[in-house]
Amino acid sequence: MTDTSLADTPKARRKVVVVGAGFAGLSVARGLAKADVDVTVLDRHNYHCFQPLLYQVATAELSPADIAWPIRHVLKYQANAKVLLANVTGVDVANKRVVADTVTVPYDELVLATGATHSYFGRDEWAAVAPGLKRIEDATVIRRKLLIAFERAELADDPAVREQLLTFAIVGAGPTGVEMAGAIVEVAKHVMPSDFRRIDPRTARVILIEAGPRVLPAFPEALSAYTQASLERMGVDVRVNTRVTNCDATGVDLEGGRLDAATIIWAAGVVASPAGEWIAAGRDRAGRVQVEKDLSVPGHPEIFVIGDTSAVSREDGSPVPGVAPAAKQMGVYVADVIASRARDAVPPPPFRYKHQGDLATIGRKSAVVKLPYMNLTGFVAWLFWSVIHVFFLIGVRHRIAVAFKWVWDFMTFQRGARLITDQKDQI
Amino acid sequence: MTDTSLADTPKARRKVVVVGAGFAGLSVARGLAKADVDVTVLDRHNYHCFQPLLYQVATAELSPADIAWPIRHVLKYQANAKVLLANVTGVDVANKRVVADTVTVPYDELVLATGATHSYFGRDEWAAVAPGLKRIEDATVIRRKLLIAFERAELADDPAVREQLLTFAIVGAGPTGVEMAGAIVEVAKHVMPSDFRRIDPRTARVILIEAGPRVLPAFPEALSAYTQASLERMGVDVRVNTRVTNCDATGVDLEGGRLDAATIIWAAGVVASPAGEWIAAGRDRAGRVQVEKDLSVPGHPEIFVIGDTSAVSREDGSPVPGVAPAAKQMGVYVADVIASRARDAVPPPPFRYKHQGDLATIGRKSAVVKLPYMNLTGFVAWLFWSVIHVFFLIGVRHRIAVAFKWVWDFMTFQRGARLITDQKDQI
């Protein structure tokens, strides 16, 4: 355990500690670049991950490094910021210190932006057989499962075993579920066929299971209908109003019966990180911290909770969604609050979320986009989606590399990252 | 266990089984494209790895997928070849069957091309603290160790601890050791400095330890001298005539004394894969199988051993080196032998290795190249090295992606794959 307070920080400047370097945390740190404060960013990973493209790592299109960037590299020119690799385990609220495995860091202002993880609604034993998709490691686990299923099917003689190996069940039809279903069916039907000799990968079944009445529940109904029709045309078996009652190593039990599937992917629910427990704050059922209008914690104006760990409402009472633009807006806002305190200025007015739209890609040449004044579907939406996502990657190098891979693989029906790594005990 | 003999293979055609899809095995399979045989390639990985660039994955320049390609994708258009993901555990020589974890495959002709791994000269306990560099997983393990050393140094308060964390010991000064030493010192001096606040990465020490009298012992003496001088100018501490007597978690014991180093990389020795044991063949001290002039095993004209698993001599009695061109030449030759048998033709004359040269890169703008009629050093050698390596990558997509990353990172002093993944229990 190390106390960094004495060694690094001149007495006079306020110490701002940001836990988590996702979209929210990084926005706070960058937003404080010109403020007269010392910023310390703690994260258990050394990189910022561009989560919206995680599904492309999981489906062998991109490499992990294409969507990740070292946090300290992002902040290298920001002299008032430092980055520490540390796994935070708690907060000593009384003494204003963040406690991590490798370090203890005192703060004047603390920003908790530790995100969310998948929720199995109390059935945590499903995690082992139905991985979710929140971190780089999740994506490589899913990639491995996906690719090994085809390899094992090629080796199998029993038709029932082959069929089970070539069945992919995706639970939850939000954007992640839709994107995974579309990408997997394309891999099976366009990328794999000529590579195999004994199986026909085009016979693979991709089943998208949604408990609610429609896919993409947060989108307008017309876009949900369009998405479901598109997926079905691509060969995805979409089952709405279908609840999963159990997951095990060989398949899922649905309300309507059993589905044998070697690969199950969980895209059904999220639960907030345990940051709310660290500070013993009031939380909703998903573990999100109920915050004040300036995103601080009731009774602790020096602690802010933002991003997917925080429960914030829009003006109409509906919740602010767990998307990257919302996380960034909260980060920018809290940086503004802290900066105004540092110079004894009037604090900004209460946080207001500005919804910019919703995007989901369905597959090759197809996406749905909801903008404030218009909806896009099909190829135009897909182009819009692609440009937006390349634009928001960090750094020109990543933008060029990802754009090149997309264009190349679009034209050749390839996937460039079909690696089964670290496969011990997997086959 | 599955027997694929009945299901797939028409009776008449000879069954050729190739174990290992490195340079040697893949050359056999491709060389048999037009032969009237059935080829089955078995590998425990689903990809062919371009080993000469592994050190660039280990030093965070390239992603694993940049230097790997699915074996079945490489052979997708070769109708007489199939690929099975299988971990071979032995050969039933009497019944002509290869035994693997997932499958048993009968053969008429068997080619063993299972490569080599690092040798710790009987001190296998060093493997845990001094990883070698033969597989993709080795490269990501070393990358993680390398990057975590800097992260932990940034967190450390004790100057002695910082110094130990920023000391990198590389054991063995063949091409891999030289390339690792050059790449690590460049990462420390050019890539890292502005990213850190508390440590100065330029103070990192990189020590290249060689038991023999000079670096790159297989190269002409002038190139060894040039390489050592270049490395020393870059800041590498080169210690020739220095033997390692012990490795542990905190450093290495040298004949001259103790060296505290958090990161130890093993590039000192190789030992052949256990393929020689599977067939109970005569082997040299490094486990390499002694083969006939047609690369078949004495007493077993139907079994060939090629690549790093085989001990082959040149005309002057010196051993054929363990490099990619040698493996490829053996593969092409054995394909020729098998094809001529299949059409009852005269077998080709005994295998003759044609040495094309030696290459090693030292760092940014510097390499050494020995060609039959000339030697190159410095920038020209470095350009030659770069072009050759891009050219030999499989597929235009990989060539463009790697060339782009090299040009970009050359100009910007970046490294594009600085990811610490799967770090459980590592910090």
UniProtKB/TrEMBL annotation, chains A, B:
It comes from the Bacteria. Signal peptide: none annotated. Gene3D superfamilies: 3.50.50.100. Residues 355-411 form the External alternative NADH-ubiquinone oxidoreductase-like C-terminal domain. Residues 15-331 form the FAD/NAD(P)-binding domain. Keywords: FAD, Flavoprotein, Membrane, NAD, Oxidoreductase, Transit peptide, Transmembrane, Transmembrane helix. SUPFAM superfamilies: FAD/NAD(P)-binding domain (SSF51905). The keyword Transmembrane helix applies. It catalyses: a quinone + NADH + H(+) = a quinol + NAD(+). The chain crosses the membrane at residues 373-396. Its EC number is 1.6.5.9. One of its GO terms (molecular function) is NADH dehydrogenase (quinone) (non-electrogenic) activity. It is an enzyme of class 1 (oxidoreductase). Pfam families: NDH2_C, Pyr_redox_2. PANTHER family: EXTERNAL NADH-UBIQUINONE OXIDOREDUCTASE 1, MITOCHONDRIAL-RELATED, NADH DEHYDROGENASE. Belongs to the NADH dehydrogenase family. This is NADH:ubiquinone reductase (non-electrogenic). It comes from Methylopila capsulata. The lineage of its organism: Bacteria, Pseudomonadati, Pseudomonadota, Alphaproteobacteria, Hyphomicrobiales. The gene is ndh.
